[in-house]
Structures
1.
Amino acid sequence: MRLSLALKAVAVLDIVVLGAVWLIAPATGLGDDPDSRSLLVARALGTDLVVIGIMNWIISRRDTASMRPFLLPNIVMHVVPAAIIVTLILDGTFGAADWLGAGLHIAPAVVLTWYLASPTKRRAARSEAHA
């Protein structure tokens, strides 16, 4: 898969699966009786995820060298919630059903980390020229 396709897939995940759910149905995942502040934070988070997804979609249309600087912020954006969710599952605060939420953050983090760690064609060409 090309990096542009990976960023588009992450964009769709951020917009539809994560962002829109929190924006449209903010009580999702907040328990039985969320207070108004929690709903506000969930909607704000949903808005942020939709905007990040739109930015990823726009960035995905650029050349690979222009896309690479956006990988690390995207990775961090998914690793932090994944780490929090996994920690809360392991300490018993969250239930086993919350592994889905962790997975929705771990998967894009792993894919984007692979792209960040893999050398670009330009770097590989330079290495061959110097060998």
2.
Amino acid sequence: MRGAWFLGLLLGALGLGVAGLKEAFTLRPLGGKAVSCQPGSVPERAELWTNGVVEIPLCRRATLVLLLEGTPARGKGPHVLVAEGSRLLFEGEVLGLRELRFRTSGEGMVVVAFTDDLYLPPEDRNLFLRRLRVEP
């Protein structure tokens, strides 16, 4: 009898713990204020050979011009996201050379994310930041 009671108590505690974990791993949208931007050096070039992010700590209002190059695998170029803080500036495929131009607000870190790497020799999907220009 005592063993059944202890087992019931143990299973109840585990159930409560799992319920708490579910809440801990629930995805929530970014809301409210954007993460503050810490000024730093702005990269001129970057090479993403696998999934990754390039941070651009511009931290001011400006026009940002990115020259990106995507190499394909299975006929598809890299999927790219460009965001400033919680504001999405661009989402799409980059195949070959593509110039993107954005007006930044200076309210968050600008990031360029490469999200769907694929390597099937001899094909290799990659993303290259060939040039970054900041205009007033």
3.
Amino acid sequence: MAKVKRENMVIKYILCVAMAVLVSSCSSTSYNVAPDQARPAFNGEVLVFEKSVPENIKYSVIGDFVSQSEWYGGAGETANAAVKEAAAKGANGMLIEAQGHRVTALSWASPYTEGKLLWIDNYDVAQGQQVKK
């Protein structure tokens, strides 16, 4: 009887661990950088703007991104995930064009964030005008 109980506990533990791994690893961010805009990784803070970039900021669009979670949560989580990897793609700025929730295989309302990867020429000016995430 004790052996069966222990086996049930082991099975429950394995299922819990598997579910935790599945839920935590079901988010992804895809980047598309134009070949002529490829840059080395940026070693600073990626500046984040929502909906538009102020007119006094000089920038070029180097690509786009989509960050999607397969599970429930807030769109801020997907934005933060996108920002963390943007510098590795050579961006020093991001423009968030859309955020919200979509239906996915695992949820009715999983968060997403999408927008543009930017190279900001006047980075020092832009720092004070970004949206804090």
4.
Amino acid sequence: MRRRTLLAAATTGLAASAGCLEALGIQTSGVVVTKQVWGRIDPERTDAEGPVATWLLDDGELSADLPEEDAPLPTELPIQIDGEAAAYLDANHGPYDLTANICESPGDPDGDCSGPTVERETFNDVRLGEQATIHTL
């Protein structure tokens, strides 16, 4: 009997905590509108930081703003940072952060958008133009 009560309480607690995480800003849900790499814009300078690479869908077509034409960064969907891309980013733009910009209502100026910094695994898992939930703990 105690196990069932404990299991029911734990299940209810987990379901309730998902809503709390989003309310606390620890969880972000919406449509992935852009994926970006933020780091040193100029490999020769350490003081100039900003968006190094940006990917977005424009009317269903992939648009990529990359630092160099021959950079080993993705130019086709899905946008994922593999080992070669990570090594390039470390050497030329590190330290860097990966972000996934998510909007509850894409295209709406009040669409409640956020761009949390994410781990490479999460960056690789979320897809441009698709619904995603990111836990930012």
